[in-house]
């Protein structure tokens, strides 16, 4: 064991405050998903890695997905791992690979850590990794073995759901001999690589009847590392004696393995307190990180690393916890402790730790350096900037000390005395949580109730990762409700051209939604983006059906269409129910297929239920469909857009802004004239330019184009507006629109000026200001900016609740549930005339 000296730890960080990054990867065997998928890292690993490297951080704790690498006994797929590790190596990064993170083992080990085949399978996998990547500089063979096996074997929280000291001992007897054998293998094959043993850094204290339990727990926290090191194995120890009595005597004779660096994971809840009222974590009397590091350093004499820390809270809370842990880390360094790295973990918000991974709901856990947003995007915050500064070497006294907000303020009460010398400041406005005002007339919380059996397959002309619109708002909510019953939702997009020899399906997991698209071979004259009915995509429906069948999904899915051009694809799936959501008059759009209106008529006749996105759309199709047709104008996520009110700040000159797609539906001449009429204003256009030549959009010094902006960032954009614009052209493409942005603007607290779009006039004539010309828009801007927000809110309140996306999705789900689905078609029936 290496107990001192920096040279023999190269290329790991030298003693000092070097930052290390890490990515959460835990696999949930019961649900067949892992954190790299739910956080979106698996889809874009190079992007996330490059962001870390751009911050100057070179060392990364990086997970290997055993269940992906070794999907069946004796079979290996290295493609994903080759790409990720190759990228790290090419860019001069130093990966500390993590072979098993919590319950991340293959599905074919059906009894998990207790499986009779676990040891052989694990050692074989570990050796295969070592032989595949002999250049690796550092490794963790089994992350947090004490914490993982305690939760899986003592507390029955994770599979195989064993319980008590006997269950814990069973898992230790299955896993620890395998880990020591794998360690010998790696020491032989990669003698220069460094073994980083990672486990929880705990401390327990108590008074009265809690003192005895604290003594036992302080002995228990060391037992796993002591067993593999052969350290202090006195059979009379408080907890070790219990293990021996439970059948663990053979664990006393394990061959000692080599540990080069002891990684300790420290959180506020790593310290426990016991008294007559029971157990509490975080402790009201913590000894602090520096003292915990001192205890482990004194016991083992090993080089150490703070291998994980974070706190669940707002960005400002995380910034202050980072200041505390960095300050404590530096205090430990000043005492002579050999610390080789500080890791805030994870780099990207994890998911579902609010249930300890019991439910894969895709709920973001606010702990990361950056957050993952809709469509796999990444969102930086106040904390991201603080972490970047600290990683670049900013002195601890230059890091901000934001007052903790609830619930962190209560949880960390015991830690506050150690921070008494800080120059406290209030959190930034965007990090304050505004109170939730519930009107007296508020209804009971909406619950979406859907049948458990059929999957939902959505066929859309829009892409999941593009502008967040009606399909994403509705499908994300319906998917979350169905996921609670084990049902999958598939969002199927139009095909694209790519570098493939034959048509191939691609997929990405986005929380509860699986995004699917078809890539067809490139060909001369073939555009990059195709329609569902393009001859090159003839096999789309068949490939989808085969994919669903191969996944073991139930037959006769619910199929939801946003474009009639996908009707043949839908039929190939043999749907149980067909839902058509008419969100736009697509036949009126620029470049629309001549066949679109005919296919729409066919879909209106054959769909089981039809929804329409506004009054005008409803009227336009009602003469072709008289039954089961329901009007649901687009809605709003009030909680999301209300944030704009708290983010508003003074700015130098007034801003009139637009958020949305910039295409043929906008009156570009009006926009050009408005910029001339308001030379002392900024006109800000937020959204992608599409379907029109970008050179045709007006240009002026006060006319700014922000481009595509993630949905999560829209409240911040709206906070910078003084007036919201809807400068739509009045043409065939806008005759039937019901703009989603109307309510989003109003909920954000903005006055709205619009051309006379029929649905806006019909629904919002007492709230929205209307104008017809550039001069009229300019006059309206100067007028409405002075109007009362309270008056607007008074008119808004009666319509706001029924237009909530949650309410709309629930109402749609209830209507679908009333339809009796068609039974699955058996093979014999498919061949009958």
From TrEMBL:
Signal peptide: none annotated. InterPro entries: GH, Glycosyl_Hydrolase_39. Pfam families: Glyco_trans_1_4. Gene3D superfamilies: Glycogen Phosphorylase B, Glycosidases. It comes from the Bacteria. This is Family 1 glycosylhydrolase. It comes from Streptomyces ficellus.
